Amino acid sequence: MLASARGRFYVYALGWPDGTPFYIGKGSNSPGVVPRVFQHEAEARTTARRSHKLNILRKLTREGLVPCYAISGFFDGEFEAHAVERGLILRIGRHDLRTGPLANQTDGGEGTSNPSQESRDRRLATLGGQSDDPDRRRINEFFAEIGGPQDSVPIKPLLGWRKAEPLVPSLKAIGPTSRMAKAVVASAAANGVLLRPGVMIPRLLQVDGVEYLIENGCGKEAITAGVLSAPPAVVLPRDESMALTERGFRFVVGTFGAERLVSLGVLEP
Predict the structure, then answer these.
(1) How many structural domains does the chain have?
(2) Is 90 exceeded by the pLDDT of residue 114?
(3) 93 lies in the same domain as 133
(4) Average pLDDT over residues 200-212
(5) Is residue 16 domain-shared with residue 144, that is, in the same domain?
(6) For residues 205-229, average pLDDT
(7) Which position among 58, 144, 228, 246 has the lowest Cβ density within 10 Å, counted as fewest Cβ atoms?
(8) Sign of the Cα pseudo-torsion (238, 219, 151, 113, in order)
(9) Structural domain containing residue 212
């Protein structure tokens, strides 16, 4: 159908098996290139990246199901295709805005209109997350994508950090904090972990090829607060992983909200 279509551009929908759409996109007919409408499934299979859209596709695969595909129209001009794409997203509604079921993170068109909260936080990070150290700036910006700007980011570059200590309960009593929840979600997002009680949360994160660790204080306090369990074995700090407790899971979901975690790609849709 796509190969024989006369229009150069097209607008498509991906849907659940019952036909409910979960993603709207725009593609173009390019000889020798896999059509964009079919690239999403390949991306879900071949990358560890997590997003609401990719999690839906992986969920369907695990359940032995396939998504529905629908072409909404073919167009000679890209402007017209963008207009139709935006109209469909507006009419059906976005999950992150609580207006509908779509996993789209923008209003469509050029891909930047009405960005999701994650995109807004990324821009705020350029104001509040700057650092002279490029590795530190990178993790500040990544952390802001997860939980918004933070004066003290509880994740540090591993290279050159000589004070990384094994994680054990801290000596002072402390309850769960949003900083702990953000560190958990940051690790889950970077490591492709889906949150659930008992899942192992790595202390080591890799962002853009740079290695980072959850800092000593935040990690120890999260154990004391009952958000994470202590590492099950004595290993190097970079190899530590902590189980997310039932209490910790409930706290993280309560801090972020289930819909936000789904949009971040760390909770099953």
Answers:
(1) 2
(2) no
(3) no
(4) 93
(5) no
(6) 93
(7) 246
(8) positive
(9) 118-264
